[in-house]
Amino acid sequence: MAAATTVMASLRSSSSNFPLSLALLFSLFLISTTKVNTGAALNDAVLSVKYKYAGRERSLTTLKAHDDQRQLRMLAGVDLPLGGSGRPDAAGLYYARIGIGTPPKDYYVQVDTGSDIMWVNCIQCKDCPTRSSLGIDLTLYDIKDSSTGKLVGCDEEFCLEVNGGPLSGCTANVSCPYLQIYADGSSTAGYFVKDAVQYDRVSGDLETTSSNGSVIFGCGATQSDLALSGEEALDGILGFGKSNSSVISQLASSGRVKKMFAHCLDGTNGGGIFAIGHVVQPKVNVTPLVPNQPHYNVNMTAVQVGHTVLSLPNDLFEIGDRKGTIIDSGTTLAYLPEMVYEPLVNKIISQQPDLKVHTVHGEYTCFQYSESVDDAFPPVTFYFENSLSLKVYPREYLFPFEGMWCIGWQNSGMQSSDRKNLTLLGDLVLSNKLVLYDLENQAIGWTEYNCSSNIKVKDEKTGTVHLVGSHYISSACHLKSQWSMFFLMVIMLLHALVYCDATTKRDC
Ligand SMILES: *[C@@H]1O[C@H](CO)[C@@H](O)[C@H](O)[C@H]1NC(C)=O
Ligand SMILES: *[C@@H]1O[C@H](CO)[C@@H](O)[C@H](O)[C@H]1NC(C)=O
Ligand SMILES: *[C@@H]1O[C@H](CO)[C@@H](O)[C@H](O)[C@H]1NC(C)=O
Ligand SMILES: *[C@@H]1O[C@H](CO)[C@@H](O)[C@H](O)[C@H]1NC(C)=O
Ligand SMILES: *[C@@H]1O[C@H](CO)[C@@H](O)[C@H](O)[C@H]1NC(C)=O
Ligand SMILES: *[C@@H]1O[C@H](CO)[C@@H](O)[C@H](O)[C@H]1NC(C)=O
């Protein structure tokens, strides 16, 4: 969870502190040119087709059949097995299993819509974790073990794009470096590699077939103080951000998937559904994404507590060039500007006049209440452009702590300088909803949903609709462990980290 935040707080590798850090990186990752693939687009599928038809005459029908099949594969849905839980009392993170390399090995990566690249720890890494209490086996990526792994040279398009242009010292015979610095000063650095990433393609009702696409990702050769390396360590992070460098963008630009994905995070049982493709059931209403923002930002228009609509100024959610409300699966709690937070929390608390309110750690509003919170407190509903609403029930915005209930809303007005007044909705309020990210139409939407059930994903080519079910990939029962100080520590960490990112232009 703290990791979730660090991710969210990650700077883009093209950020302003780059030149300095690069000097350091180059000294670490000068790699001779012989292995660098200069990117003559080698397509796995085409190669295998050549092999298949070698020495045989190709009729137009077989060609057509191949094209159809290829397009079928290209536009089909993807089912990512999901584990973990977004609950702040537990690990507070969701992760997915993916295969990398040929032959493929399994890696467990945190799914994060707040960051833009994928990275996994590499064999060179001395300080990377090798064990995890999540009940999963960690693997260090070794390019030598993969027949499809290639280094990415500084002269490749991807490197130029991710760095926003050529970098001094980053020449054709040098491997393209990556660097992510997080808000707490922790970091991961290494170099980009390109390899086959294997995923489960949806091929029938609750059925998948293994498929793969070539993806460029960071190979982590050094890291420091990453929360992701703690006891609940994972292999890396799978960025599902909007930028061209994210895995979803890479798979979509090679025509393998639609630039659409959805998650349904099961707030009660952990795990859930994460699917790439066109979700047709449940149906969701969508709201447009605010253009030119680094994250998934939408315009909030109103806030309602129970039956009362809060009166808020029009420009409340505009702070400089930062616009709208950030939707981020990599963050746990929900952050609201003081002008929303104050009346919202007052209204909630005033429902029960006898409530004894405590402030825990200076910022968490907590109270004792022994009956059903859903009966005693009002739901909170956020409204967005295009009449999309998000209803959050008391059981979702309250979390138990030391025999009390604490309120999951956080006051972003308490933060300093340009982190102030940010609006961000994380896992806690996004749980138990099917959240759809439609990058083809630049929109995002959601609907209340049972994340332990199935959704339907449409195959664009054939029009066939298939069921995709929920997963829980880890047996780690400690995820349901009781509340402990661990939670507050994590929350505090999170709190300290969460704001740095929102602007993304800062060196936190
Ligand atoms: C990279 O190429 C430059 C110019 O050709 C050369 O000076 C340099 O030594 C090379 N570096 C490595 C690590 O091979
Ligand atoms: C990737 O897909 C190609 C073409 O379908 C296949 O030949 C190859 O074995 C796959 N590689 C992996 C690692 O799954
Ligand atoms: C991403 O790629 C698309 C298509 O290749 C291109 O039009 C767009 O400018 C790129 N965006 C960025 C931010 O590089
Ligand atoms: C969101 O709000 C801003 C500022 O009021 C406005 O310019 C924009 O058109 C709205 N909608 C979207 C989708 O950006
Ligand atoms: C934050 O909101 C307060 C009102 O609650 C306002 O006075 C202040 O100027 C805002 N700060 C920034 C940086 O926008
Ligand atoms: C959610 O779906 C699962 C699987 O279909 C079912 O067992 C469970 O009862 C459902 N939960 C609710 C609250 O409807």
From TrEMBL:
It holds the Pfam family TAXi_N. CDD domains: pepsin_A_like_plant. GO terms for molecular function: aspartic-type endopeptidase activity. Residues 94-447 form the Peptidase A1 domain. The active site is at residues 112, 328. Residues 1-34 form the signal peptide. InterPro entries: Aspartic_peptidase_A1, Pepsin-like_plant, PEPTIDASE_A1, Peptidase_aspartic_dom_sf, TAXi_C, TAXi_N. The keyword Lyase does not apply. Keywords: Aspartyl protease, Glycoprotein, Hydrolase, Membrane, Protease, Signal, Transmembrane, Transmembrane helix. One of its GO terms (biological process) is proteolysis. The chain crosses the membrane at residues 483-502. Gene3D superfamilies: Acid Proteases (2.40.70.10). Belongs to the peptidase A1 family. PANTHER family: ASPARTYL PROTEASES (PTHR13683), EUKARYOTIC ASPARTYL PROTEASE FAMILY PROTEIN (PTHR13683:SF685). This is Aspartic peptidase. The lineage of its organism: Eukaryota, Viridiplantae, Streptophyta, Embryophyta, Tracheophyta.
